[in-house]
Design a protein that fits this description.
By secondary structure, the chain is α+β, with helices and mostly antiparallel strands. Helices cover about 35% and strands about 35% of the residues. The chain has 2 domains: about 120 residues, 3-Layer(aba) Sandwich (Aminopeptidase), CATH 3.40.630; about 110 residues, Gcn5-related N-acetyltransferase (GNAT) (Aminopeptidase, 3-Layer(aba) Sandwich), CATH 3.40.630.30. It is built from 8 helices and 12 strands. Strands 1-2-3-4-5-12-6-11-10-9-8-7 form a 12-stranded mixed sheet, sandwiched between helices. The model has no long low-confidence stretch (mean pLDDT about 90).
Length: about 280
């Protein structure tokens, strides 16, 4: 086996994009990060081959951590050992790792054995894909899905929403102004959509966190606490997906924790189907 390293994203994509697209849903983070023109950070990009056959593709960046893809459905111990040996020899400081659930335990155990890292936690993530909206929930006459632009008034409005959600999630803890503004600016750059009405009440919002080749990935899908359990979750998500299909995406992706039964029920009701299982793993020194 040998490892091939790439100097830039263009060279990596020219050789490996077709392979990644064979499983675009599983590789959405991989593809989306490399397609992101606003992401200026340099990535470590490499592949492992055996007799010219690609066995592993991997990417490491400070923001996303180590992302690993095994194109083959059967991966032996020799391949995993070679991968980890090279990751350690490259002196990559791995804080976070994303890998298929099928091989997550094998990769995790080998990395812990060969490195000085300790496990913080391992989360099981399910990837859901929507090819068409199975059931659309109608909006009331005054409601609509709006893509938020970067006007100062909208930035301030989004900052307020983020602070409210932070307060809900962290049980009364306040979100610092600078953190809320930073998050809001990121959301606006990527594409933020809200469910609102003519009185400018905001019920739900979501962010188009990544764009791939044929798809986009949505995240931070949140309904404000005052409107939970009133049908806004399904209403917002079904109409948002219709909006995104109209923008030209062939399918839509989202991720959720495997234990989030409520979210998965909402997703499946609209037409999302689980297409991949991933392990998101965190380490400390």
């Amino acid at each position: 086996m040998e490892i091939i390293k790439y100097d830039n994203r263009e060279a990596f994509l020219n050789e490996n994009l077709e392979l990644l697209l064979k499983n675009e849903a599983e590789n959405e983070l991989f593809i989306g990060t490399l397609q992101d023109d606003t992401e200026q950070e340099n990535c470590v990009l490499a592949k492992i081959t055996d007799e010219k056959e690609t066995k592993v593709l991997f990417m490491n960046s400070e923001r996303e951590g180590l992302v690993i893809y095994f194109p083959e459905r059967k991966v032996n111990n020799k391949t995993v050992e070679f991968l980890i040996e090279n990751i350690i020899s490259m002196k990559l400081n791995i804080r976070q790792m994303l890998v298929s659930d099928k091989y997550g335990e094998k990769v995790l155990n080998e990395y812990l054995k060969k490195s000085n890292k300790k496990l913080v936690e391992k989360n099981c993530i399910d990837v859901y894909q929507l090819d068409e909206v199975k059931e659309k929930y109608l909006l009331d006459g005054t409601e609509g899905i709006v893509k938020v632009d970067s006007k100062e008034t909208n930035l301030n409005k989004l900052i307020k929403i983020i602070k409210n959600m932070y307060n809900d999630i962290y049980m009364g803890e306040k979100c610092p102004d600078d953190i809320a503004k930073k998050i809001a600016n990121i959301y606006l750059k990527r594409g933020t959509y809200i469910l609102t009405d003519e009185d400018e009440n905001i019920y739900s919002y979501a962010v188009k966190i990544r764009k791939q080749i044929n798809s986009c990935t949505i995240g931070a899908v949140i309904t404000l606490s005052a409107y939970l359990g009133k049908g806004y979750e399904k209403k917002f998500l079904s109409n948002l997906c219709e909006t995104l299909f109209n923008e030209g995406y062939k399918f839509i992706l989202l991720q959720t924790n495997r234990n989030n039964v409520t979210a998965k029920h909402i997703y499946s009701g609209i037409g999302f189907k689980k297409v991949a299982e991933l392990n998101s793993i965190y380490f400390y020194d």
